[in-house]
Structures are given as structure tokens and as C-alpha cells.
Amino acid sequence: MKPTALIILFFLSIANVFSQTFQLQVNIKGFSDNGIAYVMLYKEGEDFNHASKTCIKKKMSIKNNTCVLKFSSLKKGKYAIMVYHDMNKNGILDTNFIGIPKEGIGASNKMKGIPSFKKAAIFIDKNKSIFINIKYL
Questions:
Q1: Which of 22, 54, 111, 115 is the least buried, fewest Cβ under 10 Å from its Cβ?
Q2: Is the per-residue pLDDT at 136 higher than 70?
Q3: HSE of 73 in the Cβ direction (CA atoms, 13 Å)?
Q4: How many CB atoms lie within 10 A of CB 71?
Q5: Which three-class secondary structure state does DSSP give residue 24?
Q6: In three state form, how does the secondary structure of 70-118 look?
Q7: What is residue 54's predicted lDDT score, i.e. its pLDDT?
Q8: Does this model's pTM top 0.85?
């Protein structure tokens, strides 16, 4: 094989590694009724406790107290997911006077306690399927 062909093959293989993307399937259960689920996908470095302009936000119908969705074209890296159950369909997570959610919430990585990216982080380096259980506080 000629050196030029080897160089072309080398650069094509590098381009393939850097352009590789993955799919994440999110299975969410435990909703108290059929309402609306808001699911936010955060990349490492984004403000996890707020629906930032850069996070991917999806609105999903809930059927039989569950919903399933897929995020496609994800590059290798750390991600975290936050979910809330919009029971009254007003588009926001309702909280009490001290900030405790009145509606169900959940996060990736079986996170417990105060939400943080570090606790909820999952590493995507292949196609994955994860499960999130909604909790009502």
C-alpha cells in the first residue's frame, strides 16, 4: 500500500473515533398519575440545578405511570439527568415555601439527597439504557 493511502486511512480512522456518537435510553417509572414529565439532560459543566439554555429538555406524556425516551447523537463524556413530574401541567416544578418539591422528582445514577451533577453523573461511552424512579417528598 502506498504511503499516501496509509495516511488517508489513518486520518479517516481518527475522524471516526472523534465523531462517534451514542444513544441513551431513559426508562422512568413511579409517577403517581398520568401527567407530564420534564426530562433534562446536562453535559458536564452545565448548571445542573437549573434548566439552563444549553441542557436538552424534553416534555413527555406519562402512560401507565411510566415514560421512556431516547437521547441520540451523544458524544462520549459525562452526563446527568433530572426529571420532574408536572402534575398540574403548569410547566414548572412546584415547591413549598422552603423549596421542597411538591411534585415528583428523580435523577440518574440512583441519586439520593440534594441534587448535584457529581452524584447524578453517568459516563457515556457506548449505547446505554438507564432506569430512574420518581420520588415524592
A1: 54
A2: yes
A3: 1
A4: 18
A5: strand
A6: EEEEEECEEEEEEEEEECCCCCCCCECCCCCECCCEEEHHHCCCCCCHH
A7: 74
A8: no
C-alpha cell at 72: 441520540
Q: What pLDDT, on the 0 to 100 scale, is given for residue 67?
A: 95
DSSP 46: S
What's the CA gap between 19 and 76, in Å, rounded? 9
List, edge to edge, every strand of the sheet that includes 21-29: 66-75, 21-29, 128-133
Tens digits of residue pLDDT in 76-85: 999 999 999 9
Cβ atoms 65, 29 nearer than 8 A:
yes
